[in-house]
Every structure is written in C-alpha cells, then in structure tokens.
Amino acid sequence: MTGILSGLTIIEGSAFVAAPLGGMTLAQMGAEVIRFDMIGGGLDYRRWPVTREGKSLYWPSLNKGKKSIAIDIRNPKGQELIHALIAQSKNFLTNFPARGWLDYDKLKSVTPDLVMINVQGNPDGSSELDYTVNCAAGFPDITGPADLDQPVNHVLPAWDVSTGLYAALSFLAADRHRLQTGTGQLVQIALSDVAFATVANLGYFAEAAINGETRPRIGNDMLGSFGRDFPTKDGRRVMIVAITIRQWTGLLEATGTHDAVAQVEKELGLDFSQEGDRYHGRGQLFEIIGAWCAAHNLAEVKEKFDANGVCWGPYRTVPDLLAEDPRASDANPVFGRVTQPGIGSYLAPGSPLRFSALDKDAPLLAPQLGQHTDEVLLDKLGLSSTELGKLHDERIVAGTDDM
User: Fold this and answer.
1) What residues are paired with 237 via a beta bridge?
2) Are residues 40 and 115 both part of a single domain?
C-alpha cells in the first residue's frame, strides 16, 4: 500500500459496524490493519445481506484492505499470540470488552506506549446498538408523515457510521499525542455519547431547553427553509432544496414561477428572500413548484434545474443509482470494479478522501477469513515453520484452507 498512513500497523478485534468501519477507514488510507477472528468466523462473519448461497456481503464490505488471521481466542495460547501482535504494533482497535485478557492495564504493562481504541455501547460498558440508541435519541418520533402516530426508524445506521469515523479520528489524535509525548493511552468511544452529542450539536437540546417544545413531525419538508419531494410527470420523484438566495432564484428561473411566487409573497406578507419566510409560506410554494414538476418529466426537470443551478436530486433505488449516476461508477476515481473471491464482481470504493500529495489508490479487496494467518505469524512474530505447524495441528490458528 502507498497510502498516507503507510508504515502504520494496527491490530483489530471487532464485530458489527463501528469498529470494523474505523479499521477499514485507516486501512483505506494505507495502514496495515490486521484483523483477528475466531476460527470459522466471529459474530458478524455471516451477517446479512448475504448472497443466494448464504455468504455475507456485509463482512467483506466492511473489511476491505485488511489482513485476516484466524485464531482460537478462547485458548490462552491464542490470546498470547494476540498479545504479542499488539505489543509489536503498539496499536489496538476493538469493540470487545476491555477486560480480562484484553484489559488495558494488562496490555499496557507489557507495552507502556500502547494506543488502544475501545468502542463501547454505553460509557459504563453496557450493551447498545444503533437501533436502540436511535430510538432513545428522539429522531424516530419526528421522522415520517406529519399525521403518523408511531415512530419511524431510519435504515441508515448513522450512529454506527459516526462512531466508526470517530474511532479512526481518535486513533490518529492519540498517535499524534504519542509522537509528541511518548505516552500511549486508552481512548473510549461510546455509541450513545456520539449519538447524543450529535443531537445536541445539531441544536435539538437547545431547542428543547430554550423553546420548551418538541420539534414537530413534518414529513419530507425541510425545517426552516424551502425543501420537499415532488413527483414528476413520468412517475419519478425529486427532492428540491433552496437554502441560499442563489438556489431560490435559480429555482424560480428554472420553473418560470416568479410572478406566481411574488403574488403569494404579497398575499402572505412574507419576504421569500428570507429562508425562514420560505418555510412559513411553504404550503402555497409547494403547490406552485409541485404543479410545475408534475407537468415535466425527469429529463426535462434535470435540464432546467442543472442549467439554473438548482439544488436538487432524483429519488432512486440503489440499482437505479448504479445505472444512472456517474458519481457511483468507475468514472469516479473513488470507485473501481473488484472481484471478491467467493462473492463475485461488483463496484467498490476506496477512501473518499482525495490527498493532493498522493496518487489515488485503487479500491481494495477484503481478505478471506484466515488468509494472512501464516504470513502474519511468520513475519510479525518470527515463528518457525515448526512452531506454526504445531499451532495449526492444535487448532489454535487456522488459514483459509483449514476452514
């Protein structure tokens, strides 16, 4: 690898989304990330979505660019191998409980300058998942149609993704601190802390405290500005947003609705050059813009909107996205086609970060379970072939052919 983090080695023990995403983010920037799993696969090795043959598409998607070793981590000899790898790399990322054989103080006693990133559910170490954090964060109660009297879960695991990116960021921050001071540290990141801090950062806490009210459910309307979805003549649907005055005037120019909008503005006593007034008058504005969209097909909408700088986007399925949008194709250097062993060929991303000092790396494959067991133990720990063979015979370690 030639990425910006080339030369950095991190040991990862993880499952599910946040921690694997954090490790993959570092791997896609060139770090050598060595993931260990139980022989036969860990908790998330067969997680959905899966192929028709039952092979997980989830696992390779979140482990691109890593090395994989398979070890019986319940066996003390297996734990000793993991300890030795952590001591050598001095970097450990995990969402496993930081206790017992993975206790930070125990690891630090051997490696004083160890940087360990521990992703948790709650700050007290108790279990939590994206779904259970999200329901507690208040978003499901303000998501969905305005007249709906039940919560609506979001299908995007936003808190897992945010926590994974925080994990990668926290590692880089702790590594920089170590370079400056020589001191390692344990960094704990709780999913619930990330979620609730984000809710607060977006103004929801202040809104509840200062205004003393709960934000209403407003369907697909955008709070405090002009924004909503509209159907087109050919049965497609588009999202239109006008936050800035330039976006607003571009929308009026594209749709030729200046006069109709001016009349509504006069009738309501509002100033639609102001974002908040566009929100207050959104009912009548939606009727005007909606009527224009309903009279034009998607191709006509695209032509007019793009020519006038309108901020908009079409609603799509994922297959539609892959078929229609060059941003999600190999025309975009972030993406490239890979052939994943045992899975097939599909479009995969590298890092979305574009560093001007480096050439863009091609998207990386995910490892097969245990693919690098022998390589890592021989090269990193200096085991002899005889020692390695004995570990295989005792089923303490396994390679791809042993599964």
Assistant:
1) 231
2) yes
Closest CA to 278 of 265, 292, 288: 265
**DSSP structure class, residue 56:** B
Are 89 and 189 part of one and the same domain?
yes
CB 138, CB 208: distance < 8 Å? no
Q: Which residue has the tokens 């390589």?
A: 375
Do 167 and 24 sit in the same domain of this protein? yes
The CA distance from 226 to 286, in Å, is 9
Q: Domain tally for the chain?
A: 2
Asked whether residue 224 is domain-assigned, the answer is: no
Based on the fold, state whether residues 94 and 123 are members of the same structural domain: yes
DSSP helix/strand/coil, 148? coil
Tell me the two tokens of residue 241.
Answer: 């947003």
Give the dihedral of Cα atoms 222, 225, 231, 237; nearest 10 deg.
-60
Of the residues 37, 72, 160, 361, only one is catalytic, namely 160
Q: How far apart are CA 304 and CA 54, in angstroms?
A: 45
Same domain, 56 and 177: yes
260 domain residue, yes or no: yes
Same domain? For 78 and 163 the reply is yes
pTM over the 0.85 mark: yes
Last residue within a domain, chosen from 289, 314, 339: 314
| Residue 130 a catalytic site member | no
> According to DSSP H, which parts of 182-229 are helical?
191-201, 204-206
Statement to judge: residues 251 and 118 lie in one domain: no
The verdict on 391 and 290 lying in the same domain is no
Q: What are the pLDDT tens digits along the chain (403 aa)?
A: 579 999 999 999 999 999 999 999 999 999 999 999 999 999 999 999 999 999 999 999 999 999 999 999 999 999 999 999 999 999 999 999 999 999 999 999 999 999 999 999 999 999 999 999 999 999 999 999 999 999 999 999 999 999 999 999 999 999 999 999 999 999 999 999 999 999 999 999 999 999 998 889 999 999 999 999 999 999 999 999 999 999 999 999 999 999 999 999 999 999 999 999 999 999 999 999 999 999 999 999 999 999 999 999 999 999 999 999 999 999 999 999 999 999 999 999 999 999 999 988 889 999 999 999 999 999 999 999 999 999 999 999 999 988 7
**Which two three-digit tokens encode residue 234?**
């050919």
Domain span at residue 123?
9-199+329-402
Q: Is 343 inside a domain boundary?
A: yes
Please provide residue 35's backbone torsions phi and psi, each rounded to the nearest 5 degrees. -95, 130
